[in-house]
Amino acid sequence: MACFILVHGAWHNGELMEPVAKSIRKAGHEVHLPTLQGNGPSDDKFVGLSDVIKSLENYIQQKKLSDFILVGHSYGGMVITGIADLMPKRIRRLVYWNAFVPNDGESLLDMTPPHYKELFDSILQPDGSVALPYELWREAFINDVSSEVAEKYYDQLNAHPYKTFVDKSNTTSNPSEMAIGKSYINATEDTALPQSLGWHPRLSEKLGTFRLVQLSGSHEVCFSNPELLSSKIIEAGRD
Hints:
By secondary structure, the protein is α/β, with parallel strands linked by helices. It has one domain (about 5-235): Rossmann fold. Helices cover about 35% and strands about 15% of the residues. The strands form 2 sheets. It has a 6-stranded parallel β-sheet, sandwiched between helices. The chain has a two-stranded antiparallel sheet with strand order 5-6. Strand 3 (about 70-75), helix 3 and strand 4 (about 90-95) form a beta-alpha-beta unit. Helix 1 packs across helix 9 (about 225-235) and helix 2 (about 50-65) packs across helix 3 (about 75-85).
């Protein structure tokens, strides 16, 4: 039995990963679904990346977890990279699922096309948050389901703390230099980033030596095909 920690992406929370976790648990594994600081319903939206990483570190320590497989989705890649720098001996393997892979000194926005920064700057709210526009969600994030399903899950998203997109990663080494096994899961129809500036191989190759696992699906394959994603997470996490 392995222990998995699934770290959600921007606008999500841990609860939304439950369909994926259910299938992983059916295979006999332990799964944790923390909600990152800033993504709870009443959380402060002015938190920064270091605050979020610290909140996950606290969760891991409080649960006394070790020898776990740490899975990060999208923005979650920023967070698991920080955790790998803080507590490398507790981690069995890092799994980036269509996730950002930051080198030291890089922010999430440094890895996105300029039009995303322009969009987020234009819709930034006084409380420090940004909401994901529905049109972007429907066309680029969850393009493999019906409109009814897309609307169902859109209604469960929450406003995201924008500072976490702007803050630079602050690690003692880059992911390629970390002495931890690494995997990259790539959903081949994911257009949350333009295909010309896509997830794989542009970001995955920043891991150095890594295991590549691919599947058909959108950025939100956790909703469109959670069973398939679960099997790929298990495959990515095996020894």
